[in-house]
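Q: What structure does this chain adopt?
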Amino acid sequence: MKLETLFKCTLTGGTAALVLAVQIAGAQQKPVEPQARATPLASRPFPAELAAYKARLFELTEPGEKKYDARFAHQLQSLVAPQVAKNAKFLARLMSGPTDVGTYVVSGQRAYIYYGICQAHQCDNTTMDILFDPARNRMVGKLLDSCVATWLGQPAAAEMALLDQRHHATFPASVTTCAGEK
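A:
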């Protein structure tokens, strides 16, 4: 029994050494330029003229907040108007959970600010992913409400793909939870 354990340890140690050698060799190669490795998921630094959008969603939509932006708040209200018409507390419920600051992403020829929010204690099945295009003053999104997906604001196919990619990266638990539900 001890010989078998020794063999497994030697095999595991050898594998670890091989992995380490490959990592060291890779680290010695010339790094790829940032432009070449950019993907639709790649966040970029905010341009100075858009720095105001580097905020949490509630900071931009609550009138008492320092970064409040009435135009942005109106866009969000318009985006979720059908859901608010059914339930006046919809947006408050959805925005009750954690949120991070917006991220600046570039996909194709378009630049967006991405926001991801989820309902408190329901981040595994109730989320909203938003893309805001400041150049066109346009907002689109994807709502996942109790695992039921709804596109918001008529996103184009490329925007749908970007929303899905950002959702998978931001809310991986909801992808797993909602996989079997329709």
